[in-house]
From TrEMBL:
Source organism (scientific name): Pseudonocardia parietis
Organism ancestry: Bacteria, Bacillati, Actinomycetota, Actinomycetes, Pseudonocardiales
PANTHER family: P-LOOP CONTAINING NUCLEOSIDE TRIPHOSPHATE HYDROLASE, PARA FAMILY PROTEIN CT_582
Domain of life of the native organism: Bacteria
Domain AAA per the UniProt entry, residue ranges: 1-192
Name by which UniProt lists this protein: Cellulose biosynthesis protein BcsQ
One Pfam family here: AAA_31
Amino acid sequence: MQVVATLSLKGGVGKTTVALGLAGAAQRHGVSTLVVDLDPQANATTALDPEPTTATVADVLDEPRRAVVERAIAPSAWGEGLDVLVGAEQTERHNHPDPGAAQLYRLDRALQRMAGELLADDGGNDSGLVEERYRLVIVDCPPSLGQLTRSALSAADRAILVTDPTMFSVSGVQRAFDAVQTERERSNDRLQPLGVLVNRVRPRNTEHEFRIAELRELFGPLVFNSVLPDRSAVQQAQGACLPIQAWDTPGAREISAVFTSLLGRVLRSASRDRPAASA
Ligand SMILES: Nc1ncnc2c1ncn2[C@@H]1O[C@H](COP(=O)(O)OP(=O)(O)OP(=O)(O)O)[C@@H](O)[C@H]1O
Ligand SMILES: [Mg+2]
């Protein structure tokens, strides 16, 4: 199980769009995936349109037991192979600016328990020979660096930093990198930045070109070569609760190709983490 968080300190730059695009690509490629909606706005949950559940991620953060996790997960309406740990407005109560260490690990514990690696609390066997339920877990973060985003970073193997190509992007990306670095030192030595994905790029826009060049100068190869163009298909597909991969327009195909390449990068980074014997 590989856990990937989509992160930015700024609102509206495309975290949820990237989480959904990656989830759609994973589903297309037969990678069993869970989307964890940590944002109290619950936009990812709305777009993935799961069946009603009797618990949400807010309950999971109250009580990170396997039984509660199970009640908060439902299959997405996008079809087989993609589930949602559903978001809710109540998650806001877990967004303290300065949380304690125990609170930060709750999401990680819940995910590990769900993955079958910590079965003792629910009376399961402890052989450790449990089949992997999800190969990929994608955590969609809210636009702040409080407890929720830090909980995601405490549980994640990789963070995708999402930005738009505007004058504030450099400082925003730098702060997001610092947050990843801090969390790696403080709570999670597995965590690494996967890279910076620039979203809503308009072709032949000199300001956008300038900002992308600036990002590349500062962050080098961590800035993905592929950028996401600004395409109305993104909003249309989200409005119809469909994956961008199911939207058959030239713009949607352009966006889908970027997500396929992002998925490749995510999966390759997972195989690097695995010990050679089990790879
Ligand atoms: N490449 C794109 N082309 C066109 N529209 C886009 C693109 N990326 C995102 N959008 C639109 O921009 C809006 C904000 O995107 P999104 O919700 O993904 O951002 P976010 O970072 O998750 O926001 P928040 O901080 O509120 O969680 C949405 O309406 C989305 O459909
Ligand atoms: Mg969002």
